[in-house]
Automatic annotation (TrEMBL):
Pfam families: Peptidase_S26. This is Signal peptidase I. Belongs to the peptidase S26 family. It comes from the Bacteria.
Amino acid sequence: MKAFIKEWGLFTLIVIIIIISRWLIWSPVTVDGHSMDPTLQDKEHLIMYRTKDIQRFDIVVASEPDGSGKEKLIVKRVIGMPGDTIRFDNDILYVNDKQMDEPYLKEYLEAFAKDKLQDIYSYNAQFQARAQVSTAFTVDTNFQPSFTVTVPEGHYYLLGDDRIVSQDSRAVGSFAKENIKGKIVLRMWPLNRITRF
């Protein structure tokens, strides 16, 4: 018995620690769809850290009901914190009347200015059509390029990085703090795109 514990004790302890930490601290997540392109791509594998310490521009995992009432996990970026007034004016973000930079949008903003993303969206005719009728990269549900939202206390305003494609707080409203499961800290797959966030 002592020989078994000596040989397998450390290994068993490590396995137990990994299992407990997986349950309490972190969780694997898979990107489903194109709403976070190009930052995160469809089918990429991520690690979510379970925390309630959420900051503006964190990429988070949130839950919302799907069509059948079951929980669906989505990956989006935090744009508005509790109590914020968010305003978009022709692709410029203002938070509480202060202009904010969104460097993660640079590639798609340039592509929108060039050809309304027609080349990038060549894989999906529906995305191309939606981009064609958009007067800006970030529009509200009525395709208006200027809109203002006040985030309720205890809620977060979440948007996808691909604003043309993403179904997010513009359509479903803000997300309560209890619906934020954690934030993305690592892309672990594919190997050539491993990144810490």
